[in-house]
């Protein structure tokens, strides 16, 4: 079963994940063009991009625990998941700068250093940027595995920051980002609690 | 035939309600669905937002925290019968009906700017009466200094109240001179029609120079007092929401800037506008705060 699943996953081209991962963007563009967004379309664009980025971030965090616990490997897709996250995060920041803030540079600069929710968002964005530019084989070789892995552990800082960015932006304490934060902490906990693959079925692993 | 709130209560959302009204008109052919207000010199000449925008983008946490929740869920609130309990330091305390407080022949149209504390804005054509006319009728006693307001508390019809997001019922307050100011109204309608539930039916406060959360909706209680009432947001987070909550571009919300605002309906590249002191009503209201440090009394 597990072997069959892993075999099936191996046959899915990475490009298919990219195509699927860009569907939320296509839907958003479609809604924006056809007037399918709400009364304040800018806010909807900003929020949907931000949320999609967070979903891909969490999906990429889940890859290792899922592999260790179930033996099912999405490892091939992890880089694409991370880069999809960064794509949406970049568009989210772009939507904020161009549509929401209308490129009022001075106001943007003042806000980003002063407002906790933007400090969290910018912090997370810079970390994701560092991860995105090193998400290629050349960087992995140049940096060496140890340094590369250490850098990419930043994702465990970036992900909680994103949820704090969300919580701090709202007037009252919201449930949804708090649940995502809990999910992230569980994934981090699993990484620590299950440091290497569980051998549920020795025969299957040995084939 | 007098206007009855039950006849015009939205069933589900405002669009359904319009179909419902059209059907009602066709059957009963009663006049009196519409509400007309005399034009007022206090109205802005800026272009009002559309009815669709005004009725589908609301902060009314009694029905949920998303801007679209009120349009979806406020239909469950029963607004007829409705009574507003006026009490405290007044000569004629009692329970007043909406028509008593805002009789048809006293209604005025007030096209006001609305500035939300979240840094967005709209222009809304309210219909209502000056709050001063209501307070005069009740007879304010000499010692009264403040007016406290309370929203309906009815969790079985107001689904947001079943969660402790805020300390229900919602409360607000004004200084007596703010309450008596000619700009301050109790609104019962907008756009030539009675208020949709999501906008605070059947009767709500509108104070155009303060952030929107001061303009309390669906009022059931008005109390004149000599001590400053505590308002809901101030109680929850006093460092972020003051009692006055005057629109002030120089005093930021601790977590975001208030210097500029985004006009709802301006389009994807509509940009931002500078926020005006007292939301542009400074000529009329700045004198109320003469000598006060507005960075301290925010
Ligand atoms: C410079 C960096 C960033 C800026 C300026 C920024 C800006 C914003 C703004 C203005 C909002 C709306 C807040 C409101 O509703 O008032 C927001 C919400 C949000 N942002 Fe960001 N953001 C940044 C980085 C990020 C990153 C890196 C992510 C995710 C990977 C992210 C995910 C989100 C999410 C999930 C929301 C909440 C969406 C919702 O309420 O539905 N943000 N951000």
Automatic annotation (TrEMBL), chain A:
<keyword id="KW-0479">Metal-binding</keyword>
<protein>
    <recommendedName>
        <fullName>Protein-methionine-sulfoxide reductase heme-binding subunit MsrQ</fullName>
    </recommendedName>
</protein>
<keyword id="KW-0285">Flavoprotein</keyword>
<keyword id="KW-1133">Transmembrane helix</keyword>
<feature type="domain" description="Ferric oxidoreductase">
    <location>
        <begin position="49"/>
        <end position="161"/>
    </location>
</feature>
<comment type="similarity">
    <text>Belongs to the MsrQ family.</text>
</comment>
<feature type="transmembrane region" description="Helical">
    <location>
        <begin position="12"/>
        <end position="33"/>
    </location>
</feature>
<keyword id="KW-1003">Cell membrane</keyword>
<keyword id="KW-0472">Membrane</keyword>
<feature type="transmembrane region" description="Helical">
    <location>
        <begin position="81"/>
        <end position="105"/>
    </location>
</feature>
<keyword id="KW-0408">Iron</keyword>
<dbReference type="InterPro" id="IPR022837">
    <property type="entry name" value="MsrQ-like"/>
</dbReference>
<comment type="function">
    <text>Part of the MsrPQ system that repairs oxidized periplasmic proteins containing methionine sulfoxide residues (Met-O), using respiratory chain electrons. Thus protects these proteins from oxidative-stress damage caused by reactive species of oxygen and chlorine generated by the host defense mechanisms. MsrPQ is essential for the maintenance of envelope integrity under bleach stress, rescuing a wide series of structurally unrelated periplasmic proteins from methionine oxidation.</text>
</comment>
<comment type="subunit">
    <text>Heterodimer of a catalytic subunit (MsrP) and a heme-binding subunit (MsrQ).</text>
</comment>
<feature type="transmembrane region" description="Helical">
    <location>
        <begin position="154"/>
        <end position="171"/>
    </location>
</feature>
<feature type="transmembrane region" description="Helical">
    <location>
        <begin position="117"/>
        <end position="134"/>
    </location>
</feature>
<feature type="transmembrane region" description="Helical">
    <location>
        <begin position="177"/>
        <end position="194"/>
    </location>
</feature>
<feature type="transmembrane region" description="Helical">
    <location>
        <begin position="53"/>
        <end position="74"/>
    </location>
</feature>
<keyword id="KW-0349">Heme</keyword>
<keyword id="KW-0812">Transmembrane</keyword>
<keyword id="KW-0249">Electron transport</keyword>
<dbReference type="InterPro" id="IPR013130">
    <property type="entry name" value="Fe3_Rdtase_TM_dom"/>
</dbReference>
TrEMBL record, chain B:
<feature type="binding site">
    <location>
        <begin position="215"/>
        <end position="217"/>
    </location>
    <ligand>
        <name>Mo-molybdopterin</name>
    </ligand>
</feature>
<dbReference type="InterPro" id="IPR036374">
    <property type="entry name" value="OxRdtase_Mopterin-bd_sf"/>
</dbReference>
<feature type="binding site">
    <location>
        <position position="151"/>
    </location>
    <ligand>
        <name>Mo-molybdopterin</name>
    </ligand>
</feature>
<dbReference type="Pfam" id="PF00174">
    <property type="entry name" value="Oxidored_molyb"/>
</dbReference>
<feature type="domain" description="Oxidoreductase molybdopterin-binding">
    <location>
        <begin position="79"/>
        <end position="233"/>
    </location>
</feature>
<dbReference type="InterPro" id="IPR000572">
    <property type="entry name" value="OxRdtase_Mopterin-bd_dom"/>
</dbReference>
<comment type="function">
    <text>Part of the MsrPQ system that repairs oxidized periplasmic proteins containing methionine sulfoxide residues (Met-O), using respiratory chain electrons. Thus protects these proteins from oxidative-stress damage caused by reactive species of oxygen and chlorine generated by the host defense mechanisms. MsrPQ is essential for the maintenance of envelope integrity under bleach stress, rescuing a wide series of structurally unrelated periplasmic proteins from methionine oxidation.</text>
</comment>
<dbReference type="InterPro" id="IPR006311">
    <property type="entry name" value="TAT_signal"/>
</dbReference>
<feature type="binding site">
    <location>
        <position position="116"/>
    </location>
    <ligand>
        <name>Mo-molybdopterin</name>
    </ligand>
</feature>
<feature type="binding site">
    <location>
        <position position="204"/>
    </location>
    <ligand>
        <name>Mo-molybdopterin</name>
    </ligand>
</feature>
<feature type="binding site">
    <location>
        <position position="58"/>
    </location>
    <ligand>
        <name>Mo-molybdopterin</name>
    </ligand>
</feature>
<keyword id="KW-0479">Metal-binding</keyword>
<feature type="binding site">
    <location>
        <position position="199"/>
    </location>
    <ligand>
        <name>Mo-molybdopterin</name>
    </ligand>
</feature>
<comment type="subunit">
    <text>Heterodimer of a catalytic subunit (MsrP) and a heme-binding subunit (MsrQ).</text>
</comment>
<dbReference type="GO" id="GO:0016491">
    <property type="term" value="F:oxidoreductase activity"/>
</dbReference>
<keyword id="KW-0500">Molybdenum</keyword>
<dbReference type="InterPro" id="IPR022867">
    <property type="entry name" value="MsrP"/>
</dbReference>
<protein>
    <recommendedName>
        <fullName>Protein-methionine-sulfoxide reductase catalytic subunit MsrP</fullName>
        <ecNumber>1.8.5.-</ecNumber>
    </recommendedName>
</protein>
<keyword id="KW-0732">Signal</keyword>
<feature type="binding site">
    <location>
        <begin position="61"/>
        <end position="62"/>
    </location>
    <ligand>
        <name>Mo-molybdopterin</name>
    </ligand>
</feature>
<keyword id="KW-0560">Oxidoreductase</keyword>
<comment type="similarity">
    <text>Belongs to the MsrP family.</text>
</comment>
């Amino acid at each position: 079963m597990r072997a069959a699943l892993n075999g099936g996953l191996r046959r899915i081209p990475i490009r298919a994940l990219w195509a699927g991962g860009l569907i939320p963007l296509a839907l958003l563009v479609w809604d924006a063009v056809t007037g399918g967004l709400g009364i304040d379309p800018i806010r909807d664009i900003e929020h949907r991009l931000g949320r999609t980025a967070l979903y891909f971030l969490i999906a990429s965090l889940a890859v290792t625990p899922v592999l260790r616990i179930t033996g099912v490997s999405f490892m091939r897709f992890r880089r694409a998941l991370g880069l999809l996250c960064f794509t949406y995060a970049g568009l989210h920041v772009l939507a904020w700068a161009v549509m929401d803030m209308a490129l009022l540079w001075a106001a943007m600069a003042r806000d980003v250093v002063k407002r906790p929710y933007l400090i969290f968002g910018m912090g997370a964005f810079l970390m994701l940027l560092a991860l995105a530019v090193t998400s290629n084989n050349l960087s992995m070789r140049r940096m060496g595995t140890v340094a590369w892995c250490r850098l990419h552990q930043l994702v465990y800082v970036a992900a909680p920051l994103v949820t704090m960015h969300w919580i701090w932006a709202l007037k009252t304490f919201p449930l949804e980002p708090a649940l995502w934060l809990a999910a992230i902490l569980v994934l981090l906990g699993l990484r620590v609690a299950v440091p290497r693959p569980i051998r549920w079925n020795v025969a299957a692993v040995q084939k | 035939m007098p206007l009855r709130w039950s006849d015009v209560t939205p069933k589900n959302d405002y669009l359904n309600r319009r179909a419902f009204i059209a059907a009602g008109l066709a059957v009963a052919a009663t006049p009196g669905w519409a509400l007309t207000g005399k034009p007022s010199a206090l109205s802005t000449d800026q272009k009002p937002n559309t009815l669709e925008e005004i009725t589908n983008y609301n902060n009314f946490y009694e029905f949920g925290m998303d801007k679209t929740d009120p349009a979806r869920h406020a239909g469950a609130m029963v607004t007829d019968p409705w009574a507003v309990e006026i009490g405290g330091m007044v000569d004629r305390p009692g329970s007043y009906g909406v028509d008593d407080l805002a009789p048809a022949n006293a209604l005025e149209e007030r096209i006001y700017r609305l500035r939300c504390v979240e840094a967005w804005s709209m222009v809304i054509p309210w219909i209502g009466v000056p709050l001063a006319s209501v307070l005069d009728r009740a007879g304010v006693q000499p010692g009264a200094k403040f007016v406290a307001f309370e929203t309906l508390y009815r969790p079985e019809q107001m689904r947001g109240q079943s969660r402790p997001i805020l300390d229900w019922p919602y409360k607000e307050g004004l200084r007596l001179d703010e309450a008596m100011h000619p700009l301050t109204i109790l609104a019962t309608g907008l756009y030539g029609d009675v208020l949709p539930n999501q906008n605070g039916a059947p009767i709500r406060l509108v104070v155009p120079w303060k952030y929107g959360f001061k303009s309390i909706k669906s009022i059931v209680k008005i109390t004149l007092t000599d001590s400053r009432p505590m308002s809901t947001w101030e109680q929850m987070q006093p460092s972020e929401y003051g009692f006055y909550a005057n629109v002030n571009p120089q005093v930021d919300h601790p977590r975001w800037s208030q210097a500029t605002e985004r006009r709802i309906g301006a389009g994807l590249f509509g940009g931002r506008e500078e926020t005006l002191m007292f939301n542009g009503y400074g000529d009329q209201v700045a004198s109320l705060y003469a000598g006060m440090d507005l960075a301290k009394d925010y």
